[in-house]
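Hypothesis: this fold can be encoded by more than one sequence.
Test: take the structure tokens below, design a sequence, compare later.
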């Protein structure tokens, strides 16, 4: 299963943001174990670095990006993605980029904490909790396990 993760889900893990981190960490673990194909937009890397850098030093932020890169497949943000995002009816441009990247990557769904921001999208949009509860992956793989 090809699962596209919005930046906020990734930040929930990297910043250990309760109460969202547990479900997000379980999804991350599925990607890390290659039980799903975890997809992320290339712009998520710069957005995450910018946000993490406000809370920590550059070395720690870069280490987080390396963990992210080891577990997920980046989806390019090229001219076609930008043009489609600019033409999108979504009110938030960053969300539009995420959706178009997910579509270009043939994702089966998008995981985000802000499902309301993705109304009318041509893919299923779920929270990490909804994804895990849907039973799309074997339950023995969804335990929290060790921290990422």
């Amino acid at each position: 299963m090809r699962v596209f993760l919005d930046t906020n889900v990734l930040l929930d893990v990297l910043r250990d943001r309760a109460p969202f981190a547990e479900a997000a960490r379980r999804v991350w673990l599925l990607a890390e174990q290659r039980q799903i194909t975890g997809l992320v937009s290339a712009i998520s890397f710069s957005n995450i670095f910018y946000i993490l850098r406000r809370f920590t030093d550059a070395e720690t932020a870069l280490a987080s990006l390396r963990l992210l890169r080891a577990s997920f497949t980046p989806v390019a943000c090229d001219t076609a993605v930008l043009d489609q995002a600019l033409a999108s009816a979504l009110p938030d441009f960053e969300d539009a980029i995420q959706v178009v990247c997910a579509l270009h990557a043939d994702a089966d769904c998008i995981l985000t904490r802000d499902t309301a921001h993705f109304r009318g999208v041509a893919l299923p949009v779920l929270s990490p909790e909804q994804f895990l509860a849907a039973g799309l992956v074997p339950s023995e793989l969804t335990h929290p396990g060790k921290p990422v």
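Residues 91 and 117 are 8 Å apart (CA to CA). The first strand starts at residue 2 and ends at 5.
Hypothesis status: open.
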